[in-house]
Design goal:
The protein is α+β, with helices and mostly antiparallel strands. 71% of the residues lie in helices and 9% in strands. The protein has 2 domains: 2-89, no CATH class; 118-228, name from scop (3-Layer(aba) Sandwich), CATH 3.40.1690.10. It contains 7 helices and 4 strands; from the N terminus they run H-H-H-E-E-E-H-E-H-H-H.
Length: 229
């Protein structure tokens, strides 16, 4: 209400100022032309119209200049008021900075927690895998297969960059074979989510890797299982 009342007063004052400036200009202009107007009765119609046009034009331009000057002043005044109203105080700047910093800290904390969950899942899953296939440095995918409980091999962990490196480290520490299979690692990383079975088109490549690992781990048991199958 206070803002609107102030704006109303300012608008009224501007109208009054315009009248104070325009009316004297009009009056003085008419006073200037008054002595000459007496002579108009002795002139022809064309001369009267010409003289009247010049007088009106003179008055018009004087009033227009005043209105333009007032418009420029009004524009600067309006801009000043807008800047004043939208200018934040020192406390508001501090509060905004705290909010921004708080949001950044929150994002970092959420990201950190997300990375911690992923890292924990990798630490839990990789030791249970049968093999880790790599790209060799860009991608790493941990595969597990249990004939008795699974219909197809599953991806239990995957990562790229730093996570791929971490998967390889955990696999080696846990005694899980790490094999370089560029095409298979890349295809599994892009096509299969963690906890999902590998696609049918990758069965053959995955089966060859698993068979190779089984032979390395226990040649006798592998041959026995093959004979039973």
């Amino acid at each position: 209400k206070k803002v609107f009342s102030v704006q109303g007063v300012v608008t009224t004052l501007k109208a009054v100022v315009k009248l104070i400036l325009i009316l004297p200009i009009g009056f003085l202009s008419l006073k200037t032309f008054a002595p000459e107007m007496v002579m108009l009765i002795h002139l022809t119609v064309e001369d009267v119209l010409s003289y009247t046009g010049k007088a009106c034009s003179s008055i018009f331009w004087k009033i227009l200049y005043i209105l333009i000057a007032l418009a420029v002043i009004d524009w600067f005044w309006t801009k000043y008021q807008w800047l004043k109203q939208n200018k934040m105080t020192k406390d508001e700047v501090k509060d905004e900075r705290k909010m921004v910093e708080g949001d950044e800290k929150t994002r970092r904390r959420i990201l950190s927690k997300g990375m911690e969950r992923i890292a924990q899942r990798i630490r839990d899953s990789v030791p249970q895998a049968d093999v880790v296939v790599t790209n060799p440095t860009h991608f790493a995918v941990a595969i597990k297969y249990d004939r008795e409980t699974m219909t197809a091999p599953k991806v239990v962990a995957k990562g790229r960059g730093f996570l791929a490196k971490r998967i390889r480290e955990i696999a080696r520490t846990s005694g899980v074979p790490v094999l370089e299979r560029k095409s298979l690692a890349r295809a599994l990383y892009k096509s299969t989510e963690v906890g999902s079975e590998i696609p049918y088109e990758l069965f053959k490549a995955a089966a060859e890797v698993l068979a190779y690992v089984y032979r390395l781990k226990n040649p006798y048991k592998y041959l026995k299982n093959e004979a039973r199958a």
